[in-house]
Design brief:
The protein is an alpha+beta fold. It has one domain. Helices cover 38% and strands 25% of the residues. The chain is built from five helices and two strands, in the order H-E-H-H-E-H-H. The chain has a two-stranded antiparallel sheet with strand order 1-2.
């Protein structure tokens, strides 16, 4: 990891300590993306499965293989120190 990226992730999102203050040189970077189901694509896939006699596996093979979930917004990246990672970390609070 390059210095500029390391500096941007230098504080644990859970305990708010800097990397050097956590007692361990190990840490985790977490990337989170929000997704939403595409109801129309799911309906099309389900309709194809029904046309194939209820065989979802066959519909998957013969279907268009379109995305059934769509990414919403940009991903968020943050750092979690190993101490917080081993304990209970509320990712929703860490993202905010």
């Amino acid at each position: 990891m390059k210095e500029d990226r390391l500096r941007s992730l230098a504080v644990c999102s859970a305990c708010k300590k800097k990397i050097g203050e956590t007692g361990s040189p190990m840490f985790y970077t977490v990337k989170i993306k929000n997704h939403i189901l595409d109801a129309q694509a799911i309906q099309r896939q389900q309709g194809l499965a029904m046309q194939m006699g209820g065989n979802g596996a066959l519909a998957t093979i013969l279907g268009p293989n379109e995305d059934l979930a769509v990414t919403v917004g940009e991903y968020k990246e943050f750092m979690v120190c190993i101490n917080c990672f081993r304990g209970q970390v509320n990712l929703a609070e860490s993202v905010e």
